[in-house]
Design goal:
The complex is a heterodimer of chains A (111) and B (113). With 111 residues, chain A is mostly beta strands. Chain A contains no helices and 9 strands. In chain B, strand 4 and strand 5 form a beta hairpin. The chains are: A mainly beta (111), B mainly beta (113).
Chain lengths: 111, 113
């Protein structure tokens, strides 16, 4: 599974869009990009995933660059409850379900 | 409500006293797994199960046992707990192996003295 690099922490004003970057320059063709988040010692929560195309669901949007070497998770209108550690994970589609969590990005939404 | 439950949520025990942490899901998921989370090490997979009576080791299985006699339950057993098993434990499930979305339980904070 490809390694990912994320900033250690970010701040965002409440109501503004939060853009969380992830670098995965060694991603291979069949590997998906997943985003999970963990709110203070709670169980990680699935947010979104994608392979090549941009994806959107009720929680967030995922923008993947054309060369797939990086991606951005967008929370369109951040709230205080979005304060959490956000993990970007890259994993092959045919692999086991094991998720390898790195250190993630601590997003602090400020009032 | 679709969920993964774990019990107990908090446990303080002593070295060598056998304990079981239960995990149950109500989504008819085939795949279940256990992770432990430690500061600076992230979440690491302990064991996983692809279906009833099918289990396999993850990255850090030493000192743990699991069983999968029913689809909904996947208990984690520590036969002889030691202080280095003090950790935050999470159970997770997904519809089947290879399915993208995993659901995590609320966690069990275990302290072994």
């Amino acid at each position: 599974d490809a390694k990912t690099t994320q900033p250690t922490s970010m701040d965002c004003a409440e109501g503004r869009a939060a853009n969380l970057p992830c670098n995965h320059s060694t991603i291979s063709g069949n590997e998906y990009v997943y985003w999970y988040r963990q709110i203070h010692s709670q169980g990680p929560q699935y947010i979104i995933h994608g392979l090549k195309n941009n994806e959107t669901n009720e929680m967030a949007s995922l923008i993947i660059t054309e060369d797939r070497k990086s991606s951005t998770l967008i929370l369109p209108h951040a709230t205080l409850r979005d304060t959490a550690v956000y993990y970007c994970i890259v994993r092959g589609g045919g692999a086991t379900n094991k998720l390898i969590f790195g250190t993630g990005t601590l997003l602090a939404v400020q009032p | 409500e679709a969920q993964v439950t774990q019990n107990p949520r908090y446990l303080i025990t002593v070295t060598g006293k056998k304990l079981t942490v239960t995990c149950s899901q109500n989504m008819n998921h085939e795949y279940m797994s256990w992770y432990r989370q430690d500061p600076g090490l992230g979440l690491r997979q302990i064991y996983y199960s692809m279906n009833v009576e099918v289990t396999d080791k993850g990255d850090v299985p030493e000192g743990y046992k699991v069983s999968r006699k029913e689809k909904r339950n996947f208990p984690l057993i520590l036969e002889s707990p030691s202080p280095n098993q003090t950790s935050l434990y999470f159970c997770a499930s997904s519809l089947r192996q290879g399915f993208k979305e995993q659901y995590f339980g609320p966690g069990t904070r275990l302290t072994v003295t």
